[in-house]
Design a protein that fits this description.
- It is a single chain.
- Helices cover 41% and strands 8% of the residues.
- It is built from 17 helices and ten strands.
- By secondary structure, the chain is of the alpha+beta class.
- It has helices at residues 4-23, 81-85, 105-122, 134-149, 170-178, 216-225, 236-246, 258-273, 282-295, 303-322, 329-335, 345-355, 358-372, 374-386, 398-410, 442-446, 487-504; strands at residues 154-157, 163-166, 184-186, 255-256, 417-421, 425-427, 430-432, 437-440, 505-511, 530-535.
C-alpha cells in the first residue's frame, strides 16, 4: 500500500534528481540502479554501484569492469577525493566510458542543502525559537541600511512581503511622535497584540493599550484614573502598602526568579486594581493567565474558548468592581464621569491587569543590573532605607526610578512602533501612498552608539539630566499622543518592589553574569534570570 510518507519521499527523490541534472552532481537511485549521468554515487566505491540484488528478481546487468584504483590514472600524481568522486566507471565491454560532468563544490553543497531542506519539511513542525543573535542581526541590518541610504527613511520589504518605511534619523522620530492620528494611525504595540481577540467591540479597540484613535472619553478616563504625568499617584498609600505586603514573597527563599516575581506582582496588581479580596482569587488568576497565553498566540486560534474565558473573567471582575474601594483603580474608574457611556469599567480593569505583565520582567532585569553594579545597588538601597521616613513624599524614589528607566531603555517592552499613514504623505521629498506602514525601531535608536552616549552601558544618571524625559531618542514609554498614560504609575510600582527587596537584602549573585564595564547583552530573557539574595 502506498503511504503518504512514501509519496513524499518519491517527490523528494524527483526534486533532488532534477536539481542534480541542473548542477551536474551524480545521484544514485533509491533501489540500487546505476547512477545517472555516468557518475559515481557519492560515498560508494565503483565496484558497489550495482547495489544489492533486487528481492525476488534477477540481479542487475553487469556494469563492466570496475574503474582503476585510486591514483592509477597518472602514476606519481596524487589524486584528490574530489577527483575520485568525479571518476566514471567503464561501460559494458567494448563501450567507451562516458566522461563524468565536472562537479564544483558549490554545486555539491547546493544539492546537499536542498536535500536537507526537503527532508526537514517532511518531519513534524517544530516551534520556532527566537535566535539569540536576532537582535544583533537586526541592529546590524539597520546600521547597514543607514550607511547605504543615509539618514533618509528607507523603504524595505520584509520576508512576508510587507513593505515598511523605516525611520533612521532622530529628526524623523520627532515628526513620528508629533503627527496627529489623522495622519499616522497608531497600530497596537507588540505587548497589546492579540487583545482584540477578546474584545467585545467589533473593531477590537482596547483601552488597556491606549491608542491615538480611541475615543476621547476613554483616553480621558485612563489619564484620570492612572494619574498620567503625576509622579506619585493619589492612591499611593494603599498601593505601596499592597506592594510591601506582597514583596515578602520575593525574599522568602533567598533567591528570586521569574515565577516568584510574577506571583507577587500579580497578587499586588489584583489588589491595586480590584481590591484586597481579589488577591486570593486563584480562579481569576488562572483565567487571566489563560488570556495572557491567548494574547501571545497568532490570530485565528480557538476563539470560542478564548471568548468563554474572557466572559468568565469579565463577570468575576464586574463583581469586584461593584464593591471596589475608592482607592482602587476600579473604584476610581467607577467614580469617573462618563456622560457618553463609552467606558466599560470591567474591560478597563481587565486590561489594566493584563498591562502589568511587564512589571515582573522589568523588576528582574533592574535587580540583575543592580547586582552587576554594586555602587549603584548601594545608592539605591540607601534611598530605599531613607524612604521609610519620607512621610508624604513616600513613593518618589528618584534614583530607583532612574534605574528602572535605564533598564527599560536597554530592554524596552515595546522594541518597535508601527503606524499607518491615513493619506498620502511625504518624507524627505518622497511621496508615499495611504496605508504605508511606518516603522520606528525604538530599541535600535535607544542603543544607537552613534547618537546615544554609552549606549550599551547601564548609566542611570542619564535620567537625572534636565529634559532627559523629552529626549526624542529615548522613549521607553513613547512620546506625544501615543505616550502610555500609566507610565508614572508603572514606574512607582516597579521602583517600590525594587526598594522592598533592597531595603533588607543585597543581590550577591546573578545569573547570567554581566560585565559591569563592558557592553551589556542586547537581550535578557527574564526566564533565565536567577538572583541570589542575602540579608543586609
Amino acid at each position: 500500500m502506498r503511504t503518504v510518507q512514501g509519496a513524499a519521499l518519491d517527490g523528494i527523490r524527483a526534486r533532488v534528481r532534477a536539481l542534480a541534472e541542473r548542477t551536474g552532481l551524480p545521484v544514485r537511485s533509491a533501489r540500487g540502479e546505476p547512477p545517472e549521468h555516468g557518475g559515481a554515487a557519492v560515498g560508494l566505491r565503483p565496484e558497489e554501484y550495482a547495489g544489492p540484488p533486487r528481492r525476488g528478481g534477477t540481479p542487475p546487468a553487469d556494469l563492466g569492469p570496475a574503474g582503476p584504483p585510486l591514483g592509477a590514472e597518472a602514476p606519481g600524481r596524487r589524486t584528490s577525493a574530489r577527483a575520485a568522486l568525479r571518476r566514471t566507471p567503464a561501460g559494458p565491454a567494448g563501450t567507451p566510458a562516458l566522461p563524468a560532468p565536472a562537479v564544483s563544490p558549490a554545486a555539491a553543497t547546493t544539492v546537499f542543502a536542498a536535500l536537507g531542506a526537503l527532508l526537514s519539511g517532511t518531519g513534524r513542525p517544530r516551534p520556532r525559537r527566537r535566535r539569540p543573535d536576532g537582535a544583533h542581526a537586526s541592529a546590524a541590518a539597520l546600521r547597514a541600511l543607514r550607511a547605504r541610504h543615509g539618514d533618509a527613511p528607507a523603504l524595505v520589504r520584509t520576508r512576508s512581503g510587507k513593505t515598511l518605511l523605516v525611520l533612521l534619523d532622530p529628526r524623523d522620530l520627532r515628526r513620528f511622535y508629533a503627527e496627529p492620528v489623522s495622519v499616522l494611525a497608531a497600530d497596537p504595540p507588540q505587548k497589546c497584540r492579540g487583545l482584540s481577540t477578546h474584545e467585545p467591540d467589533p473593531d477590537g479597540d482596547g483601552a488597556g493599550c491606549v491608542r491615538g484613535e480611541q475615543r476621547t472619553g476613554r483616553r480621558r478616563m485612563n489619564e484620570d484614573v492612572l494619574a498620567a504625568g503625576v509622579p506619585v499617584h493619589p492612591s499611593a498609600g494603599p498601593i505601596l502598602a499592597a506592594v510591601a505586603e506582597e514583596a515578602r514573597h520575593l525574599t522568602a527563599a533567598g533567591s528570586l526568579e521569574l515565577s516568584r516575581a510574577r506571583n507577587a506582582v500579580n497578587r499586588a496588581a489584583r489588589r491595586i486594581v480590584l481590591g484586597d479580596p481579589a488577591a486570593e482569587d486563584d480562579e481569576l488568576a488562572g483565567w487571566l493567565t489563560q488570556l495572557r497565553a491567548q494574547d501571545k498566540r497568532p490570530r485565528g486560534g480557538p476563539r470560542r474558548a478564548a471568548r468563554s474565558v474572557h466572559d468568565k473573567a469579565r463577570a468575576r471582575i464586574g463583581e469586584y468592581v461593584r464593591h471596589a474601594g475608592d482607592d482602587t483603580l476600579a473604584g476610581r474608574a467607577a467614580r469617573h464621569g462618563d456622560p457618553e457611556g463609552t467606558v466599560d469599567c470591567e474591560d478597563e480593569a481587565r486590561l489594566w491587569l493584563l498591562a502589568m505583565d511587564a512589571v515582573p520582567d522589568t523588576l528582574l532585569r533592574t535587580l540583575l543590573l543592580l547586582g552587576a553594579h554594586p555602587c549603584e545597588q548601594d545608592t539605591a538601597a540607601a534611598e530605599a532605607a531613607a524612604e521609610v521616613a519620607a512621610g508624604p513624599a513616600r513613593g518618589e524614589l528618584p534614583r530607583l526610578r532612574a534605574c528602572v528607566r535605564e533598564s527599560l531603555r536597554l530592554y524596552p517592552v515595546v522594541p518597535d512602533l508601527i503606524r499607518v499613514t491615513c493619506g498620502e504623505t511625504e518624507w524627505r521629498g518622497v511621496r508615499h501612498p495611504a496605508g504605508t506602514s511606518v516603522l520606528l525601531p525604538a530599541a535600535f535608536h535607544q542603543r544607537d552608539p552613534e547618537r546615544v552616549p554609552a549606549a550599551h552601558v547601564f548609566v542611570p544618571g542619564r535620567w537625572k539630566n534636565p529634559g532627559a524625559d523629552q529626549d526624542i531618542r529615548l522613549a521607553p514609554f513613547s512620546h506625544g499622543e501615543g505616550r502610555c498614560p500609566g507610565d508614572q504609575l508603572g514606574l512607582m510600582i516597579t521602583a517600590a518592589f525594587c526598594a522592598e527587596v533592597l531595603r533588607g537584602h543585597r543581590v550577591t549573585g546573578t545569573r547570567p553574569v554581566l560585565d559591569p564595564v563592558g557592553p551589556l547583552p542586547v537581550t535578557l530573557d527574564p526566564h533565565g534570570i536567577r538572583l541570589a539574595l542575602t540579608r543586609r
